[in-house]
Amino acid sequence: MHSDGDVSASGAYPRPITIAIVALGGQGGGVLSGWIVKAAEAAGYLAQSTSVPGVAQRTGSTVYCIELYPEAAAKRVGRDPVLALMPMPGDVDVVIASELMEAGRAIVRGFVTPDLTTLVASTHREYAISEKSALGSGIANGEAVLTTAREQSKRLVAFDMRKAAEDAGSAISAALLGALAGSGALPIARERFESSIRAGGRMVEENLAAFAAAYERAEGKAEDKSEELSATPIAPRPRSPAARAIVDRIEVEFPAALRDVLLVGARRCADFQDPQYAALYLDRIAGVVALESGHVDTCLLARECARHLALRMTYEDTIRVADLKTRPERFQRNLEQLGARSDEVVKMTEYMHPRIEEIADTCPVALGQWILRSKLPKTLLSPFLKKGRHVRTTTLSHFLLLRTLASLRKIRRSTLRYKIEDARIEDWLQTVLQTAPSDYDLAVQVARCQRVVKGYGETYERGLKKFAQLMNALEYLRGRADGASRFAALQEAALADEDDNALKEELRKLKSPEVAVSGQRAKC
Amino acid sequence: MAERSFEKEIRKLRLGAGEEFSGEGILAVTKALLQSGVSYVGGYQGAPISHLMDVLADAEPLLKELGVHFETSASEASAAAMLAASVNYPLRGAVTWKSIVGTNVASDALSNVSSGGVKGGALIIIGEDYGEGSSIMQERTHAFAMKSQIWLLDPRPNLNSIVGAVETGFKLSEASNTPVMLELRMRACHVYGRFISKDNKRPDFGPGDAMENPVRDLSRIVLPPASFVHEKEKISERLPAAIDFIKSRRLNEFFGPENTELGIAVQGGLYNNLIRALEMEGLSDCFGATSLPLYVLNVAYPLIDEEVASFCAGKKAVLVIEEGQPDYIEQAMHAILRKRDIQTRLLGKDLLPMAGEYTSEEIRKGVTAFIREWGNDLSRLGPRRPGKRTGESSAPAELADVVPPRPPGFCTGCPERPVFSAMKMLDKEMAPSHVSCDVGCHLFSILPPFNIGNTTMGYGLGWAGASAFNTESRKRTVSFMGDGGFWHNGLSSGVGNAVFNKNDNVLVIIDNNYAAATGGQEVPSSQPRRPTRSTGHSIQNAVKGVGVKWLKTVHTYDVEDMRATLREALATKEKGPKVIVAEGECMLNRQRREQPIRNRMAADGKRVMRTRFGVDADTCTGDHSCIRLSGCPSLTIRDNPDPLREDPVAYVDNTCVGCGNCGEVAHAAVLCPSFYSADIVRNPNRGERIVARVRGAVIEYLQRREQKRREYYAF
Fold first, then answer.
1. Which residues 373-432 in chain A show a CB within 8 A of chain B?
2. For residue B618, what is the nearest residue in chain A, using CA coordinates?
3. What whole-number distance in Å separates Cα of residue A37 and Cα of residue A32?
4. ipTM value
5. Rounded to the nearest 5°, which phi and psi values hold at B467?
6. How far is the C-alpha of B345 from the C-alpha of B363, rounded, in Å?
7. Which residues of A touch B431 (CB under 8 A)?
8. What predicted TM-score, i.e. pTM, was given to this entire model?
9. How many CA atoms does the CB half-sphere of B236 hold within 13 Å?
10. Quick check: B178 and B119 in contact, CB under 8 A?
11. Going by DSSP bridges, is the β-strand pair B675-682/B608-615 parallel, antiparallel, or unpaired?
């Protein structure tokens, strides 16, 4: 328990206590700074705070500056202290960061110094637009921030304060205040902070609960209760002979290094179609394993193939989507995510926009091809396909419609989409198999290359186009020492922007003779 | 402001003599106006002075008691023109805006009022939006003060000094018949502090008295020959009067020891930063007792030649700390010293950055360089102060690359987002157009993820900014304008101009019911809510009234319709200006209004429905094209729960307000079937409960059957 510090006994003039709150607009930094000012005034301090709202209020990052000075000391001098309006690098006692990357930003700005600064930071992430809009994964390296935070601060109080707040039904500002109070960095008693919250008069109980939870975490009395996600797949419990056969096959026929990923992959294929489909999956991987003679301990190529093949074979066709959308697990998960109470009625609506391609895909091959080729079906169907459909899954008629679509699983193998996907998969696997003997690392990259194919509709088609461009580029890479790394770079470029500018540039460099020559020279 | 209440603030405005006021700087200014017996107040909102306008707009009863006329001006020009009331009458008036932009708009009226001069005190409260966090071009208001001869106060940033500056500002204005600007930087407007109040003062002479006893003085009207006389008067009468007042009232302050070799002259507004910098170097304590003499310019213009000369004379060197450029003060001080042949070396921008904000850190660097260069005998500086701290961060430089930038963006559920989603989709279809932007939240379109927009030329000037592109071309241009900009001047400068010049391009007016970017103030087309304002005037009628024939109204959240309308406007054979009014209420303000009502209804057991969106993680493939068409803060990402996938999946967090944009975009762009919306009904009625129960039971039965099959084959 921390109590008010003795502000009258100190000898010479004390220096002001300097506090910086780094937050995102809308996170309640202003409320938090108001609470701290109130608590400090009650504890006998002169307080000054300031901020720069404006555009930063709209999701940008912003700094609140608070300075405290013992009133008794000021009275002795008979003057008001001159307090700063902006934190000065190297002179900040407490930095409160409402998010992990904002803590990073405070460190970059020099607000956090090892001799002085207590850093109170929430470790949760509010992803920036650059991270969210990446075509692949653009998430910034949080570990790098935490490591530096540990090294650069005098003391670090870091945990997921958003969660602490959400668990209490409150906003993060209350948890930040609790963590600040619990850190003991300010000579202000716990009750002062709590009185500030009470005086605010809004959501008092929830805020106090979040405050208390964070206070205890910051004091080190409570442990993190959040569970670690287990990475190992659930142990198999096959009931049918067909399922048992799959599990046995994985155990017997495949190297130990592959079993976990094969189990997940085969399970996914069986869930998508049936156990025979999972068997086909294993057959295909067996072909790759045969090439792993030199890499039995890691089986890197087979692992990558196993992972991507499973995703590739369980492509998201209309049948699959209808199936997933009507599953009980999904209903349950959504209810939890929505935070719906049991006495509330929840009505779910899906946003689906089938195109003529999706209809043809779900038809038997000949019919599907005819639909795509001929004018008549387009004329007949297009009025129904102009607008997206609102499918109300929680109504009986729409639920049954989706279930009927899902039941087409039985004829999936005869559909146009199956035929097309099957051929694409075989092509890709053949390329992997052909590449591996001469350039194992390049083959691994070819296996990984599937990740550029994602999404639905036009997004999916764009992905296929990129994939084809990458496959065509292979001819320039075979036999080159840097083939694998160049191919990896091409994939990164393919995921760099939507308009393919980076990919085009990389491909141009690859194909243009001058660059090739200079590349040769560099090797010499 | 429409959707927030300022009761607490208004209580503070009522404090009487001896009571302690605590609050923000700009609210202290508001209180100081009432204490000074102001008769009328006007202005145009914008950070950092919005709060003054918002609070007074809600303080009708108090203003009535005091006989103060307050109005939210249509623009800064309207506000500045209001000062005309002080030309002939002993009326104290104050106007306020965000600068530099507002001063630009106001400059015509400012030139007029400063030419004829004023009888009653005229105070212009300037929110100087310069430096970190600023949303506008970086220029100095100082130039306007000089060219129009308006005195410029730049007080030390504490509440006592600021409040004092309001009161002396009026007196200075009256003593010199010149309008006075009170410049407050961003953080000074928002600084929280305390001061002891005085009683509010009801003016002896009000606008009504003036109306009943009109005064006409031809010599005050700006037309030759009076205008020539005005210029001479400024020099021969008003300036000397101001200098006398400033000197005799000691508006500028001198701190620290005398007779030392070095000295520092500083703008009042930078005083606190300077003290902190000196403190860090051991040259001051935290009460401002410095080892160096300081000359604090609480009046930034005019300079008092004698003060400058006497401060500098006998010193080896003086450092001028003046924020922004050009370095008007430094230049003027050089001229003063040169003319008097004073050999003191003057330094300023040679040691401090020419451009940019003067933070304590920047000032510290400048002061250190100054001392290093000129203070070879530091013992003569007087005693060094204790309390020096030298924290130094040794964080790796690479960390700067790890931390992602945080550009501002549209709020969760913003009705402007779907407009730009539609534009982005249309760009793929028709190739991009030249886009002329305006000022307002919609300017965020230029940032990720939309990256739409080529220029912005100022508030309300979106369409005028594209007026050169009115020739034969295969493409049309698209201009944007908000309802705020439209009423500010866009109706005439943009729409009228386009009609008159037979423009063939497209304007989208974003009508969100408020001046949203400045805090949600009302505009003439807002929904009527306040008895003191006349609102509800339709933008469409105004547009038609100036002669636009091609006019469409679209509800922004209907992305498909938005796109179709834009497509039509860009493709139609019809010649002439094309205007689309895109309607959708500002979500921030809508939530402020509706949320409390919904909460109350839910608590009372009434049926309340809320809508939330979600993404099914098992059908999301982690491509994020939905995010690239949205940028909604609540549409974010999280780790992929699928162990086979690496890329994060899209995820809608709990801040979703159910605006529907995600689903509409997924439909319009034919993105993916992963989005779902959920209508969650609190306190459902009986029929609804029964239907839900029956549906639930049948669905569960069907699901169980299918699940059994899957379980049989599972492993």
1. 387-388, 393-396, 399-400, 403, 406
2. A324
3. 9
4. 0.94
5. -70, -20
6. 19
7. none
8. 0.93
9. 6
10. no
11. antiparallel
